[in-house]
User: Fold Cupin domain-containing protein from Sulfobacillus harzensis.
Amino acid sequence: MAEITNIRQGKNYTVGETGNLDALDAKLFLGQALGFTGMEVSLNRFRPGQEVPFVHQHRQHEEMYLFIKGHGQFQVDNETFEVKPGTVVRVLPEAKRAWRNNSSEDLYCIVIQANVGSLTDNDGIINDDPLTWPS
Assistant:
């Protein structure tokens, strides 16, 4: 079973290791272990024939699904479409959703949840600090 290990923290960062995703049982939430305060991220593995056993919605969170390996189907508001490596799906909170692996190989995706409408423009700041890398 995959879990977050080797957690290292600095004043402004947290690093963890999940190991090989083939050890992932079904879902691994990263938020609590890494201390997220504005989003949730999960790593997901669905074995052949496995599916989300219910349709669900969210109160405040929009979600982004990034499929990284395998093939399956995703359903939003009764519309079904195929997903494969590189498919990215954005779903608003009120949308009804589910997904499944209808293939013969494992299906992996990363899901990111954040409060809808919470992003601001021009949040990035380029610093004048010199960039140096260790040899």
About this structure: Helices lie at 31-34. The two ends are 36 Å apart (CA to CA).
